[in-house]
C-alpha cells in the first residue's frame, strides 16, 4: 500500500511587482506557475493602505488590518500575538517545520515594531549592507541561495521566501528599465527555488502547492501608499497538486493566501482564528457542451 503524498507549501513573495507590467516583462518561471494553475489580479482591500507592512501582514496571517493591526511599515501596535503568520501558527500549534527567509528587517527582527514572522521553525535573515538597489539585489541573491539550500537539505512543510529588490528599485529609480530588469532577476531567482523543490530526493512522494504573490504595485515614478489602480492592483499565482489549471471560480484576495496554506497542508481552519480569508476556489468547470465539442472531430 503506498502512502499518500506528503503535502508541502512554498510561498514566494515578490514585493511591489505591478500587475500591468506582467504583460510587458517576460517572467517565464512565474508564467510556469500560472500555466499550471492560475495567475490573477488581486485588489488590495479598500481599508488597507497600499504599503508593504499591512499588505504582507494580511497575506501571511489571513486576516485584514482591522484585526492584525499593522497599518504601515512601522509595525508597532500590532495584534500579531492573536493573529500570527502561518509559519508561526503551524510551528506553535502543530509542531510543524516551517521556514522563512527575507532581508527586510521588520519581517524578521524586533525593529520597527516587528517581527511580522514571530516564531517560525527556521528563520534566515539576510541583512543588506547598504541602502542601494545593488545592495538589495545582493540580499535577494543570498535569500535565494539560502532558500535553495534549506529546500534541498531540510524538510519544511510551509516556507515563505521574500524577494524585495524589485520594490526597492522602484523606490530609488522609478518603474523604468531598471525596474524591468529587477523583475527579470526576481523571476530567475524564483526559478532557482522552484528547481530546488523539484530536485528534492523525496519530491515524488510529496505534493507541492506553490504560491507566488505580490503585495502592491507602484506609480510610474516609483512609490506607493495611495489609491491608484497601479498601486492597489496586486496579483497571486498558484499551482496546486491535483487541481487542473484554470482561473478560480471566485475572486481571490490577499487574506486567502494563508487560508490556502492551511488547506493545502490538510490543516483544518479553527473558527476561533477568525480568518478573513478562505482557501482559493477551484477553477470553474468547463461547460459539458464545450468539452464534448472539443472531442468532436471537425
Ligand atoms: Zn511592498
Molecular structure report:
With 298 residues, this protein is α/β, with parallel strands linked by helices. The chain has a single domain (6-295), classed as Alkaline Phosphatase, subunit A. It is 37% helix and 15% strand. It has eleven helices and seven strands. The protein has helices at 28-36, 52-61, 65-68, 86-94, 105-108, 133-153, 165-173, 177-198, 229-232, 256-264, 288-295; strands at 6-14, 38-43, 98-102, 122-125, 158-163, 206-213, 233-239. A seven-stranded mixed β-sheet has the order 2-7-6-1-5-3-4, sandwiched between helices. Strand 3 (98-102), helix 5 and strand 4 (122-125) form a beta-alpha-beta unit. Helix 6 packs parallel to helix 8. It is globular and about 55 Å long. The site of zinc ion has 6 residues, from loops.
Amino acid at each position: 500500500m503506498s502512502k499518500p503524498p506528503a503535502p508541502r507549501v512554498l510561498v514566494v513573495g515578490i514585493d511591489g511587482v505591478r500587475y500591468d507590467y506582467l504583460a510587458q516583462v517576460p517572467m517565464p518561471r512565474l508564467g510556469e506557475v500560472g500555466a499550471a494553475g492560475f495567475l490573477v489580479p488581486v485588489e488590495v482591500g479598500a481599508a488597507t493602505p497600499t504599503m508593504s507592512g499591512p499588505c504582507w501582514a494580511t497575506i501571511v496571517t489571513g486576516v485584514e488590518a482591522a484585526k492584525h493591526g499593522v497599518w504601515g511599515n512601522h509595525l508597532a501596535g500590532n495584534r500579531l500575538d492573536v493573529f500570527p503568520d502561518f509559519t508561526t501558527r503551524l510551528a506553535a500549534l502543530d509542531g510543524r517545520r516551517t521556514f522563512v527567509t527575507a532581508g527586510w528587517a521588520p519581517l524578521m527582527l524586533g525593529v520597527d515594531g516587528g517581527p511580522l514572522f514571530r516564531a517560525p521553525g527556521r528563520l534566515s535573515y539576510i541583512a543588506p549592507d547598504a541602502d542601494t538597489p545593488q545592495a538589495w539585489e545582493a540580499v535577494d541573491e543570498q535569500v535565494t541561495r539560502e532558500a535553495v539550500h534549506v529546500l534541498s537539505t531540510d524538510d519544511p512543510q510551509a516556507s515563505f521566501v521574500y524577494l524585495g529588490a524589485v520594490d526597492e528599485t522602484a523606490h530609488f529609480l522609478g518603474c523604468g528599465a531598471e525596474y524591468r530588469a529587477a523583475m527579470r532577476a526576481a523571476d530567475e531567482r524564483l526559478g532557482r527555488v522552484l528547481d530546488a523543490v523539484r530536485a528534492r530526493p523525496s519530491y515524488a512522494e510529496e505534493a507541492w502547492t506553490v504560491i507566488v504573490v505580490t503585495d502592491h504595485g507602484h506609480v510610474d515614478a516609483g512609490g506607493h501608499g495611495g489609491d491608484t489602480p497601479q498601486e492597489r492592483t496586486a496579483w497571486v499565482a498558484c499551482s496546486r497538486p491535483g487541481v487542473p489549471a484554470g482561473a478560480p471560480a471566485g475572486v481571490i484576495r490577499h487574506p486567502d493566501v494563508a487560508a490556502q496554506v492551511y488547506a493545502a497542508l490538510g490543516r483544518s481552519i479553527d473558527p476561533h482564528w477568525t480568518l478573513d480569508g478562505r482557501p482559493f476556489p477551484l477553477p470553474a468547470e468547463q461547460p459539458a457542451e464545450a468539452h464534448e465539442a472539443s472531442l468532436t472531430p471537425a
